[in-house]
Design goal:
alpha/beta, eight-stranded mixed β-sheet, Rossmann fold, seven-stranded mixed β-sheet, 10 helices, elongated, VC0802-like, binds S-adenosylmethionine
């Protein structure tokens, strides 16, 4: 059993902890910005493949209080790196520093690389070389308030990059956050899902993959652990093949995305095709004011992340949209549960429906909340 730390957007920790527990992880414990857990190689491979809300899965190797890059260098040299790699492995170090005496992250990364390479050169006369793009062993160095944690990065490249959204739009929701919000909302695949401001269709695509039991990492080309010395190719192939066999063909309930912007629907269709779910989703151009529930299904979940003024326009401009959403829901969607993800409390209150719950999450650096409303009655 090895200890790991899966990172995620702040607010998602309890959701990620539930995902890890469901995968069979041991000693699951959530902290700030991530979740600690223990597991064997099979669990690590499953985590990379299946976690929908994690950004990366790290294997911490060293924790030390360091006040200079020389101290960092010395601390890194206390590990016997021959246990984890050979001079024939390539390496790279990714680093972030915050509120510390060490301020230059690239230099700190270089000192870590030097410490490892110097150890090899002194012992065997050869040293690993650097491959910044796809190293066989990728390191993550995190220094906060002079406390350094050096980890092997089992993901190398954020897990939220699923590969279906190559083009950046104005304000797309991070895929891992979208999946986490669906889980937080308690949406289950047997229930219909509608996003009346779907943009690039992130909620719809993530929901479809959840409903199809499609592992989010299934078409990912590279996980950091694949370059590790201990990588068990046979085990990995078996786990990936099981995940391929587990993908279902049909959705048990409709998933619908609409947006007023024709460009958004084109993009949504393109992303849905990339994700292999275009034939399953209903995506069409429509103003949120015209949104009506699908016929012949029990009430389900409406979820959206309307513009909130911080990134695409000023907040007051969006008051009528939030008000209209609330009116439409009250008039036409009785029994449905409405979830709105926004950073703007003033706008969220313009929905004017009874607020059942609100949960804070970070969307990058922006503090947002997922507001849940009932669709009957006034505020
Ligand atoms: C923040 S973006 C949503 C991003 C989306 N969640 C994604 O991941 O791409 C807000 C969306 O609301 C849409 N929108 C704005 N006003 C609308 C309206 N009246 N009816 C429907 N959609 C609207 C915009 O076109 C935009 O795509």
């Amino acid at each position: 059993m090895t200890g790991y730390f899966a990172t995620c957007a702040r607010g998602l920790e309890p959701v990620l902890a539930r995902e890890l527990a469901a995968l069979g992880a041991d000693s699951v414990e959530h902290g700030r910005g991530g979740v600690k857990f223990r597991g064997d190689s099979a669990l690590l491979y499953r985590a990379g493949l299946w976690l929908r809300t994690a950004v990366r899965v790290l294997r911490p190797m060293l924790e030390a209080d360091v006040f200079s890059t020389d101290e960092l260098y010395d601390a890194v040299r206390t590990i016997d790196w021959a246990d984890f790699m050979t001079p024939d492995h390539t390496l790279a170090v990714d680093c972030n520093v915050r509120d510390s005496a060490i301020t230059h992250s690239q230099y700190a990364a270089r000192r870590v690389k030097d410490a490892i390479c110097d150890q090899f050169r002194e012992r065997v006369g050869r040293r690993p070389s650097v491959d910044p793009d796809q190293p066989m062993v990728g390191f993550n160095l995190h220094v906060h308030k002079n406390h350094a944690i050096l980890s092997l990065d089992s993901s190398w490249g954020s897990l939220h990059k699923r590969g279906y959204r190559p083009v950046q739009t104005i304000a797309p929701l991070n895929e891992a956050l979208a999946a986490g919000l669906l889980m937080q909302a308690g949406w289950t695949p047997e229930t219909p899902l509608v996003d009346p401001m779907c943009g690039s269709a992130t909620f719809c695509i993530e929901a479809a993959w959840m409903a199809l039991n499609r592992a989010p990492g299934l078409t990912r080309k590279w996980f950091g652990f694949q370059g590790w010395r201990e990588f068990d190719r046979v085990l990995w192939n078996a786990i990936r093949d099981d995940a391929r066999d587990a993908v279902k063909k049909d959705l048990p309930a409709p998933i619908i995305g609409t947006d007023v912007h024709p460009g958004a629907i084109d993009l949504a269709n393109q992303n849905a095709r990339n994700a292999g779910v275009a034939h399953l989703l209903k995506l069409e151009r429509k103003d949120a004011g015209q949104a009506r529930p699908p016929a012949g299904v029990a009430p389900g979940v409406v979820i959206c992340n309307p513009p909130y003024g911080e990134r695409i326009g000023e907040e007051k401009e969006w008051v009528p949209l939030y008000t209209k959403l609330g009116q439409v829901m009250r008039d036409h969607w009785p029994g449905w549960r409405l979830f709105v993800f926004t950073s703007n409390d003033m706008l969220a209150r313009k929905v004017k429906l009874p607020v059942k719950q609100r949960t804070p999450f970070f969307n990058g650096k922006i503090e947002c909340q997922l507001w849940e409303y009932g669709t009957e009655g006034k505020k």
